Amino acid sequence: TYSGSEMTNIYGISSGKEKSVGRSDQVIPGKVFYDPELSVTLPKRTAAASAINALAHLVEAAYSPSVNPFTLHQSFEGMRIIMKGLQKLEKEEALTIETNSNLFLGACFAGKSLSEAEMGLHHKCAHVLGGSYGLDHSSVHTVLLPYVLSYQWDSLPERIKDQFKEIFNSDSPAQSLLDLIKDLGLPTT
């Protein structure tokens, strides 16, 4: 799947109704393999929800208080790649190798951004809800991301808003994202 977390020093442990998240260099992988041919049979819905998880990492990194210029640039580039892959996936009946390759590349950017910038409100909510109620992690992202982006919108600098508008091809990126999530048949509530 495409979250990008597999590239990081971040781990999550669920126990009962709680989920704890931490960082440790002991969990950094020696190698990560993205094989678009091997995973092309991934169900469309699973692929789409997982790609939204990666997109959430990129979105939150872009307005993280700990973001630096390099991470900001890679976050926006990763968003462009993931959006291209999601838009193609929305039109296709199943994954293609080309779309799968785009989503994996976006996941690489997401993992890099996730490693370099602190996550915020969106991820805190996703982890609390998922851990408390045993919810599917990627589906929680499909529900929360448009609403959290909308909530954060007024506090974002204009230069960040302009990039979001360009990437989501809309003056209302949160609404555009919600529409795409609906078109992909993913949960919104």
The count of DSSP E runs of length 2 or more, i.e. the number of strands, is 2
Q: Percent helix among the residues?
A: 55-70%
With strands numbered from the N-terminus, the spatial order across the biggest sheet is 1-2
What's the shape?
globular
Q: How would you name the oligomeric state of the polypeptide chains in this document?
A: single chain
Q: What do the pLDDT scores average to? A: 92
Q: SSE order, as H and E?
A: EEHHHHHHH
Q: Which radius of gyration do the C-alpha atoms yield?
A: 15 Å
Report the major sheet: 2 strands, antiparallel
Strand content: 5-15%
Low-confidence stretches: none
Number of discrete helical segments = 7
Which class best fits the helix and strand makeup? mainly alpha
Terminal CA distance reads: 22 Å
